[in-house]
């Protein structure tokens, strides 16, 4: 996100932002900063987040400018006395740079540590003893100063959780046609999720995920994308689970690996035989001839024209033709007599 351009603020204004006097020392500046950054952190001001974000940025900017100003003043005094040998490192103070607010990866400290009032600063020496802004070096181990005084180290704001909890997965439906489930396809789906920005604010992010639908997948098949769900402070990103859903087909009905197709024939063809054209899934057709009597409920099975079997390569289910016989709605008296005379001897 872009940031708006602001005119420079005087040092006096920065003292006012932190609520301290111009004679404040570096520890005083650090103490005021820790108090205000805790009070105005956006995560603690959800009802007036816009104001909190603005104040949070001003507080960080004020701390950065004033702490640098104090350090410059101290460095100037040190440069005047550089020719004088130092008697003890206990008189030095650990220098720090401006605080860095880390994003979603900074959740690795004990939950008993306060999120705002304890911001550990680690030196490059590998020592595990934390320091906070304004802590005199005399309170730390002597070895720490030897390295920390050479380079500035930034206090890091961590979240409160040691082992972050993973929320329930987010479930979404992925609709597929029978043709797509029969032959396989590639689906590209746009997902929108909440992520934690580098400023600590939750923002919306869009991403396109690709799903390769395999031939023969059924309704209820699940595809999981780990960590692609919403992010929340103190928790791991949720998973997104897509569940296959079959769209209703105008002709075919799926039953497991088989397909069922209803075929209606007139009564006269059902009794005397017929030739019919059977549509197949995917657009092909096949012609079939029937010489036997077709009665209501008659079925014809066409092997290998159903859905693919995912666990059996190159094998498919069957196509089941279920016949519906169309009876006339009305017969004349003469037609009735003719039907009786023809059918009365049939068993």
UniProtKB/TrEMBL annotation:
SMART domains registered for this protein in UniProt: DnaJ
Species assigned in the record: Nicotiana attenuata (Coyote tobacco)
InterPro entries (alphabetical): DnaJ_C, DnaJ_domain, DnaJ_subfamily_B, HSP40/DnaJ_pept-bd, J_dom_sf
Biased composition (Basic and acidic residues): 77-89
SUPFAM superfamilies attached to this UniProt entry: Chaperone J-domain, HSP40/DnaJ peptide-binding domain
Gene3D superfamilies in UniProt: DnaJ domain, Urease metallochaperone UreE, N-terminal domain
MF annotations from Gene Ontology: protein-folding chaperone binding; unfolded protein binding
Name of encoding gene: ATJ3_2
Name of this protein: Chaperone protein dnaj 3
One annotated GO biological process: protein folding
Keywords from the named record: Chaperone
